[in-house]
Write a structure and sequence with these properties.
- By secondary structure, this protein is of the alpha+beta class.
- It folds into 4 domains: 148 residues, Phosphorylase Kinase, domain 1 (2-Layer Sandwich); 187 residues, Transferase(Phosphotransferase) domain 1 (Transferase(Phosphotransferase), domain 1, Orthogonal Bundle), CATH 1.10.510.10; 125 residues, Rossmann fold, CATH 3.40.50.10610; 119 residues, Tetratricopeptide repeat domain (Serine Threonine Protein Phosphatase 5, Tetratricopeptide repeat), CATH 1.25.40.10.
- It has 34 helices and 16 strands.
- The strands form 4 sheets. A 6-stranded antiparallel sheet has the order 1-2-3-4-6-5. Strands 11, 12, 13, 14, 15 and 16 form a 6-stranded mixed sheet that branches.
- Helix 6 runs antiparallel to helix 11, helix 20 runs antiparallel to helix 21 and helix 22 runs parallel beside helix 24.
- The chain starts with a helix and ends in a 6-residue tail after the last helix.
Length: 827
């Protein structure tokens, strides 16, 4: 349909609605006298409007009215569909470069329609669940109220069922997420009252989301049965609201409703998806109504397992007391079915023909390999592209000198990591193998590297000796070995020499700039180097005094060697990361001094960029310095971590993922990096992936509290509240603010407020965390009071505010926009 044709239909439709019913027929006869098809299209639109119970009810000719327009930050691109109450378009959010859906309410509709439209926004935005369509914003454009939601790219559940022709397992698995979303709504005191396939949207990747809360009702939880109206306004007694074929018997009879009505409607949808037909149908609405109230549906086929049939039958009981007492109980049964189905899925046997084909292909390949081996004996072994430096042994036999051997190991790793063409496993992963009895072959397989460096270091009589050998991981073959010795004052040159020898042996490609870096060492007082290594030792530790101890040792190194650039850089990082903003000026002076001494020192630029990022909110300066650090040494975990954090704050998620993924390759056994990965995925709303990385972090380090925290947050985002609470019951996870937040999202407001008060009394609370919890409670006034304080005091978490999912429910509030504007984060 052309835009001009639609405008004619739209104008006649709205004028017809303004006419009294007795005048409407004659008006349409005049307006459409020369075009009978035009009248049919207008009458279809009017009929759809009059039957509609929710916004965007029935499909009618699509609208072109707003296509091409700019609605605030949204560029309208295409029509998705129209209904009696308005139109839906696909648009692009130009601020965040993401697709969205915009629903426009027809201007001529009455106050009741506007009230229900606003209620849809209020109800949906009050819920925060991965299986509920996210509401981004509400507004008004050309006198038409509009609602902006996330864009779901795969159509409705009905579309999905027609295209996918799902098995019962696929149907149950898909709808179990929707059931969990409904349970979340019920626990927050919200009834949906219009569960049907058209209100369940499915992404192209097969992820279902519950939509359209236009008929939702906010009810009291104190009464226990979810029947008392609070704020949504009373429905007229006896008035039937909803879509007839999916109503519960009590809903069809106009009786008071509770959560069990939604359970019945959900059962109807599940039945239809499994059977391919509705459980209650008829030739007239009255016949359908009679069957819903009194009739029994045909049993599901024997091809559907009995436990599935039992769940559907229980949901469709006429008497609400015989159904599931809560949606959460039904979710438990559905997920149990999904798990059992996955565990019992048979392995598909391979046919004998395929086996013989495979064996034949294998024989050909084997013969070809023999020929290659016989006639091409000069084939060279694969090039070494990745390497790991095992902790050097301390040959002094003095455990108090371990810091020196560990520091030398770190120095070699750092030197080699400056070679961009070489992948070098980081220090933290390698220190796990200190004193290990594992073979180099096993370590190589665990780390996924081509080669390992093994060796020892010894200090004696003012001399330092390093022995090193290179081993190919796949064959455990020793490729090279050598011994290097210098005066202690030349220890930095000694480290450069060993690194260069290893690089030469593996034929690593070294740029002129990298060659300069590998030859930049100078003499240094042994005492200064010892203080520097002690500073690094404390910088990597997590004890309460580690920051202060690191600062003291780096400062002593500088006192002994005022031009020691690396010590200046690490002193700055220690003050910024370990101590905090109160030492901002000292940290800035140290970073500036480091770059002044050595402009090509990556750690100096990382230190300066961290100050701009963490303390100054100078995003341009931070980006410039952190990028320079990455250019100089992309294999430094410090550089990767600082820049990835910056990118997450900027909302540049794809770049952040790439850097964190690289860091995970450098440090495959680092629990910390897996935690950071979970944080990044959480920012991208990729909650299931975030859970996997948090679990991996815990597997690597069961004491990683931050990993448990990320697990809690993402379990909540996927609706698994009980799993989250179980984690918070751990003795080391007594975080009252976090438990309060979970309770708030579950609808247990009294419990949440009690814990929040305890958190406030126990210690100086994070104002940012207080705000998040109040927003989860629906208390925006207190939430913005705390968030404003957090901004005023420049709390460390504040820069993360703009893209954090926990603020999605207030993102459209002008007060939130005003606070975020203070960050001046570029779009």
């Amino acid at each position: 349909m052309s835009a001009d044709r639609w405008r004619i239909i739209d104008d006649i439709f709205h004028e017809a609605l303004s006419k009294p019913l007795r005048e409407r027929d004659s008006f349409l006869s005049r307006a459409c006298a020369e075009d009978p098809s035009l009248r049919k299209e207008v009458e279809a639109l009017i009929s759809s409007y009059e039957k509609a119970e929710t916004f965007l009810e029935a499909p009618v000719p699509v609208s072109a009215k707003f296509i091409g327009m700019q609605v605030e930050a949204y560029e309208v691109q295409a029509s998705i569909g129209s209904g009696g109450m308005g139109d839906v378009y696909r648009a692009t959010d130009t601020r965040l470069n993401r697709p969205v859906a915009i629903k426009f309410l027809s201007r001529e509709l009455g106050n009741d329609a506007v009230r229900r439209f606003e209620q849809e926004a209020r109800m949906a935005s009050a819920l925060n669940h991965p299986h509920i369509v996210v509401v981004h914003e509400v507004g008004k454009f050309q006198d038409s109220p509009y609602l902006v939601t996330e864009f779901v790219d795969g159509g409705t559940l009905r579309d999905w069922a027609a295209a996918a022709k799902p098995s019962w397992q696929q149907a149950v698995e898909l709808l179990s997420g929707v059931a969990d979303a409904l349970a979340c709504a019920h626990e927050a005191g919200i009834l949906h009252r219009d569960i049907k396939p058209e209100n369940i949207l499915v992404t192209k990747s097969g992820y279902a989301k519950l939509a359209d809360f236009g008929l939702a009702k906010l009810v009291s939880r104190e009464q226990g049965d979810l029947t008392g109206t609070l704020t949504a306004g009373r429905t007229q007694p006896g008035l039937i609201m909803g879509t007839l074929s999916y109503m519960s018997p009590e809903q069809a009879a106009g009786k008071p409703l509770d959560a069990r009505s939604d359970i019945f409607s959900f059962g109807v949808v599940l039945y239809e998806l499994l059977a391919g037909r509705r459980p209650f149908s008829g030739e007239t609405d009255l016949e359908v109504l009679q069957k819903i109230i009194h009739g029994m549906p045909e049993p599901l086929s024997e091809g559907i397992p009995q436990p599935v049939r039992a769940i559907v039958e229980k949901a469709l009981k006429k008497d609400p007391s015989e159904r599931y007492p809560s949606m959460r109980d039904m979710v438990v049964d559905l997920r149990k079915l999904v798990r059992q189905s996955a565990e019992s899925a048979p392995v598909k046997p391979t046919s004998s023909l395929r086996v013989w084909k495979w064996l034949g292909a294998a024989a050909v390949l084997a013969a070809f390999a023999v020929l290659l081996w016989k006639f091409w004996p000069s084939a060279s072994p694969p090039q070494i592209r990745s390497i790991a430096v095992l902790p050097l042994q301390n040959l002094s036999r003095d455990v108090d000198q371990d810091f020196f051997s560990d520091g030398t190991t770190e120095a070699l790793i750092s030197k080699l990591s400056q070679i961009h063409s070489l992948g070098v496993v980081s220090r933290t992963s390698m220190m796990r193998y200190k004193g290990t009895s594992k073979s180099t072959a096993d370590i190589g397989r665990e780390l996924g590297v081509d080669a390992l460096v093994e060796g020892a270091v010894q200090r004696s009589g003012g001399r330092v000796r390093i022995t090193a050998q290179l081993i190919r991981a796949s064959t455990d073959r020793h490729l090279w070995a050598n011994e290097y010795e210098r005066d202690a004052a030349d220890v930095l040159k000694l480290e450069d020499e060993v690194a260069q020898a290893i690089a030469h042996e593996i034929q690593a490609q070294i740029t002129p700039e990298e060659a300069t870096l590998l030859n930049s060492a100078r003499k240094i007082k042994p005492e200064a180097y010892e203080e520097y290594l002690l500073g690094q030792y404390h910088l990597w530790r997590s004890e309460p005094d580690s920051g202060r101890n690191a600062v003291e040792h780096f400062q002593r190194a500088i006192d002994l060697e005022p031009d020691y650039a690396a010590a200046w850089a690490d002193l700055s990082i220690s003050r910024t990361v370990k101590i905090g903003p109160q030492q901002r000026e000292e940290a800035l002076n140290a970073a500036t001094k480091a770059i002044e001494i050595d402009p090509n020192l990556a750690e100096g630029h990382a230190a300066l960029g961290s100050i701009y990022f963490i303390n100054d909110w100078d995003w341009t300066g931070a980006d410039k310095e952190l990028q320079r650090a990455m250019q100089l040494n992309p294999n430094s975990l410090v550089n990767c971590g600082c820049y990835a954090a910056f990118l997450l704050v900027m909302g540049r998620l794809d770049q952040a993922y790439a850097i964190i993924s690289h860091a995970a390759e450098l440090d495959p056994t680092s629990s910390t990096i897996q935690s950071v990965y979970a944080i990044a995925l959480h920012r991208g709303r990729r909650y299931e992936e975030a859970i996997r990385h948090a679990e991996r972090a815990i597997e690597l380090d069961p004491k990683n509290t931050n990993a448990y925290l990320q697990l809690v947050v993402n379990e909540v985002r996927t609706g698994r509240f009980q799993d989250a609470l179980a984690i918070l019951d751990r003795p080391d996870m007594k975080m009252s603010y976090l438990q309060a937040w979970v309770y708030a999202l579950m609808g247990r407001h009294a419990d949440a407020l009690k814990l929040l008060e305890n958190y406030r009394r126990e210690r100086a609370p994070s104002k940012n965390n207080m705000a998040i919890t109040y927003f989860a409670l629906g208390d925006r006034e207190h939430g913005f009071e705390w968030l404003t304080k957090a901004f005023d005091e420049r709390e460390a978490l504040v820069p993360w505010t703009k893209f954090t999912p926990e603020f999605d429910n207030v993102r459209s509030d002008p007060r939130f926009k005003a606070l975020v504007a203070r960050l001046k984060i570029p779009d």
